[in-house]
Amino acid sequence: MQLANPSFDVFYGDLSRALCTGKHLLLCTKNLVLNIPALYQHIQEQQVDCAEFVPSVIRNLMLYLKQHDKSLSTFKRLIVGSEQWQVSEYQALATLLPANARLINSYGTSETSIDSCFFEGNCKQLSPSAIVPIGKPFNNSQIYLLDPHGHLVPKNVIGEIVISGDGVSQGYINNKASNQQQFINHTLTKDLEKLIYKTGDLGKWDNNGDLHILTRIDKQIKIRGHRVELGEIEAALAKIPNVISTWVKVEKIANHNQVIAYYQSENILELPSDIVQTHLTNTLPTHMIPDHIIALTQFPQLSRIKKMAMPQVIQAAFANQIYLSLPTSQTFCIDFELD
């Protein structure tokens, strides 16, 4: 079953799996993916035995199954990827599958032919709140962890995840600068030089030889399965007339990554919410639209911004006098006092 947009790299993984196993691929519309009861009915009626989900969709499906005492009885293989999710969720999902079904957490990038490694197995040794490991590389892929000087790091030491092997592409079209930064021929050992792709993700190997992904080196994050550069959102906000300061962050709310955008304008009352919403909708892809937009009457110096210092979304929603609702996000007008 295909859940991804045809423009998303995961679609080609779905297509390849179907063609290489002699199966047919069920194409799902966006409306069906968002309608969980209808999605489950479609799975049952079509006897779907394999699909790849992003965590945001599988969470909603798991909640529906739990509420209605149902299971995914037709599945032989279920893959979850493109975002981080917790061990407790992995374990809960396993109970909704047949005993002989495979539950796989996948990891990879478009630049290395979608998936390069996977985790499948027992998570009992991990904390329920821990992130599911991304496991071990495929047979035709190699994964290394490098320190800032390009040296291999040992187990339990954090390094940048780099990928080598048959899946590594030749680089970006007409983007020489990015190719020189991310696709490099690297001498990993004295007698071993390979073309590697630098993912920008930080990770570490555990004592069992499984890879754990931790965070990004840059400000890029994963939202709804898409890689998002927070600086691009800040730049789009800054282009709105009368906006003088911006800052964008990601915060986990109810176990979901949500993008929160802060901005200050010359006069908040002269910059109504519909202008902010329209501008961002016209300049950014849908998956990059912030979940919450918070307007500040005063903005702290960038060097003094701290994670806990900025107004919190949940607090702001109930504590502030001005609340403007947007079709796909929220805008709050907040009086922010500096120390």
Report on this model:
The protein is of the alpha+beta class and about 350 residues long. It folds into three domains: about 10-105, Rossmann fold (3-Layer(aba) Sandwich); about 140-215, Luciferase, domain 3, CATH 2.30.38.10; about 220-335, GMP Synthetase, Chain A, domain 3, CATH 3.30.300.30. It is about 25% helix and about 30% strand. The protein is globular.
Topology:
Layout: H1 10-20, H2 30-34, H3 36-46, E1 50-53, H4 55-67, E2 77-80, H5 87-94, E3 102-107, E4 117-119, E5 136-137, E6 141-146, E7 159-165, H6 176-182, E8 183-189, E9 192-205, E10 211-216, E11 220-223, E12 226-229, H7 230-238, E13 243-253, E14 256-265, H8 273-283, E15 292-296, H9 313-319, E16 322-325, E17 330-334
Parallel strand pairs: 1-2, 2-3, 14-15, 15-17
Antiparallel strand pairs: 3-4, 4-5, 6-7, 7-9, 8-9, 9-10, 11-12, 13-14, 16-17
Briefly say what this structure is.
The protein is built from nine helices and 17 strands.
Unreliable spans: 302-308, 314-339
Helix proportion range: 10-25%
Number of domains: 3
CATH architecture verdict of the largest domain: 2-Layer Sandwich
What about the largest sheet? Answer: 5 strands, mixed
List keywords for this structure.
single chain; 339 residues; alpha+beta; Rossmann fold; Luciferase, domain 3; GMP Synthetase, Chain A, domain 3; 3 domains; five-stranded mixed beta sheet; five-stranded antiparallel beta sheet; 9 helices; 30% strand; disordered C terminus
